[in-house]
Amino acid sequence: MESSHLPINWESRENIYLLNSRIPVAEKVEIENKIKKYFSLHPDEGLIALQTSGTTGAGKTVVHSRQNFLSAAAAVNNYLKVSKEDKWLRALPLFHVGGLSIEARAYLSGSKVIVSEEAWDPKVFIKLLVQNKIQWASLVPTQLHDVLELGEKPPQYLKALILGGGFVSEGLRKKAVLQGWPLLWSFGMTETAAMISLAKEPVIEPLEHSEIKIETDGYLSIKSASLFHGYIKADGTLDNPKINGWWTTGDQVKFENKKWILLGRGADYIKISGEGAYLQDLQSVLDEAGRDLKFPLTLYAQPDERRGQRIVLLIETKKNTINPSEVERVVSKFNANVLPVFKITSWAGISFLPRNEMGKINRQELSDMITTVTFVSVGGT
């Protein structure tokens, strides 16, 4: 499908919201109700509400103005020198900030958007790049992995493949370089209306509409023309976490050799196929699913070349025998209550779970232990 200014009317004052269709129905109703409450207090302000990533699908409800997206779009267009003759390939949905922001850039530049409407398929992606002589496209790391697995060279018309949405392994970076793909590294999130940084290497280089600084605890703070209004709370009011225009993220950074280097979020934060969540939230779902199982359970995020990480279940058996069917019931309950990317992919029994003096799981020691563990795969993941 081809579009220029559609499907979003960027000049409209109508308030709209865009939600992931995978969010469970009950949660979706709750989200819609609080959005409608907030919108009723702020009619015709041209607002856009989106969801951040969440364990079960919900996440936080972020409010932007259309101008936020257009400010970010203008900065990106200026950096890339986008012209009205250019074409974008959008392989991300509109409820994803990466997809919606492409429409804003096209609107301002007068360029066109080619939309990949099918389920993700790297062969279709490359076919659309070639057939439509695409100049610009954005992918998350999982999609880049799939494209590189095909071993195809990039089409000559492609000016840049913008990468965002999570960690990229050194091996994947080298593979992209060897195949000649013109990568640009972006940094941004739902709260910033997509990217506030573009660079030719995996560092943070703020675009013209944004400023950044490091707080004393090492966390990144952002001030930007595209920064969100706040989060909509359950009662329909707004939680505005900004202080004097600055918002402190959950990302840690350092300034080294005149470069801003992203260190990532806390050890509890994971990102799989571009979707983020905290292990403690997933663990709460597991605790409920496995409350009848008489063994300590914990989740672990294993490195995964394609998806970044994958979720596995570890069971402290203390050398006791465990019934696989009981484990399968726990896994089924858990997987039914989380987004597909956070489903348990395999499980293993382990003699003991290493803990610190506070009784918490020692993740570093655990990562060393499981290199010799035999996992049982879970079907359907």
Distance between the termini: 31 Å
Largest sheet: 7 strands, mixed
Would you identify the regions where 5 or more consecutive residues have pLDDT less than 50? 1-5
Radius of gyration: 22 Å
In DSSP terms (H or I, runs of 4 or more residues), the helix count works out at 9
User: For the largest beta sheet, what order do the strands appear in spatially?
Assistant: 1-6-5-7-8-9-10
Helical residue percent band: 25-40%
Amount of beta strand: 25-35%
* Average pLDDT over all residues: 89
Inertia-based shape:
globular
Question: How would you classify the helix and strand content by structural class?
Answer: alpha/beta
Top keywords for this entry?
381 residues, alpha/beta, seven-stranded mixed β-sheet, five-stranded mixed β-sheet, 27% helix, globular
